[in-house]
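Sync notes, pocket subgroup
Present: LS, DG
LS reminded everyone that the earlier model was apo-only. Rerun requested with cytidine-5'-monophosphate included. Inputs:
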Amino acid sequence: MPFATPDSPAPRIVLGVAGGIAAYKAVEVLRRLRDAGYHVAPILTPDATRFVAPLTFSALASEPARVGLYDDPELAIPHTTLGQSADLIVVAPATAHLIARFAAGLADDLLTATLMASASPVLLCPAMHTEMWEQPSVQENLATLRRRGVLVLEPERGHLAGGDEGAGRLAEPSTIVEMARRIVAGYRGALTGRRVLVTAGGTREPIDPVRVITNRSSGRQGYAIAEVATRLGASVTLVTTTDRSLAIDVVRRIEVVDVVTAAEMRDRVLELAPSMDVIVMAAAVADFTVDPAPNKLKKAAGPPELALVATPDILVELVGSRRDGQVIVGFAAESTDVIANAQSKFERKGVDVLVVNDVMTPGAGFESTTNEVRLLLRDHDPVTVSMRSKGDVALEVLTRVVALLPQGDQ
Ligand code: C5P
């Protein structure tokens, strides 16, 4: 319990309250945070005061509730004082407007200015009507914030204001307080303290200085895995053949290693592998390469004979040299006899998880932003993951990986 002692003051939580009807539930969140022993400083947006009175919060909190940037006689620069001293900022409810302002970097009231002036963890607890929650703008703003490390406690389904039903109801105060407790105690996510290596993209095998043999992999699924693993707290290294602009925001927090050919990917992956807890081979590695001609092959000389040679199978090498407890994930892109081919690949490669794509399914596999996969798992029946974004598929894959990791050795 984080009760204060003279040597160890109570962790400080800024409780931000935005202007939605769920603001009344923030009173309960505040009371529970205080009961759990935290020092709580409430900040209401001006619109929140239409739903709940600052006096209610002041009466229950550790210090008076604040609303304006300019109306505090005691704190001359309230946003920096509050932002810098916070161990955690919880915003409950976070409205679509608050989320948009935070994502855009606006600081036009005390709450958004405090968010901007703080390096502490932030937990957003959105609440809004289903139509607003499902707006691409809201989801994109949240994705942006997540990439920057903001934690989001998703709303639940249930009764909404005006008698409606659906997704958008504020998470239960007890859940919000439990999440706050975990964050203050150092919890970041299910992969905290783990090192994850992800490969992405299609390798390019030069034929001559101009031409290459490659495939249609966009790297999106690998980037999504790297991104979601980072969100879950892992330190991630991404070995990729694709353009970094795919993941500008991701790159800031992920170590990126650029490679071109299957041989380069193999060398870098095998070099990095011993220190990794998890390896996800999402890359489409060429199965065949060619000894490249030193100069551009001349059209006039007629079609060249290409002597293709097999590339080393990185996955098989990784599995052969895996250390205890390391979890290895492979991908399979199949177009015929998907289930039988995938099953035999699963057995042949000896991986813990095989993510199987049927590349003939519209909206799945290469170049698509969505995916539909089947997961073959060590010690578990196969699982079908229906069509969804590559980020959501990544979360499904990584959830299975977490379950396979040995616990207690982080
Ligand atoms: O055997 P196949 O190429 O279908 O297997 C696909 C899986 O194996 C992917 O996870 C891919 O990254 C990996 N792979 C590899 N080395 C190769 C070819 C594929 O690790 N040379």
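DG: Residues 207 and 370 are 32 Å apart (CA to CA).
LS: The chain has two domains: 12-184, 195-404.
Action: DG to write up.
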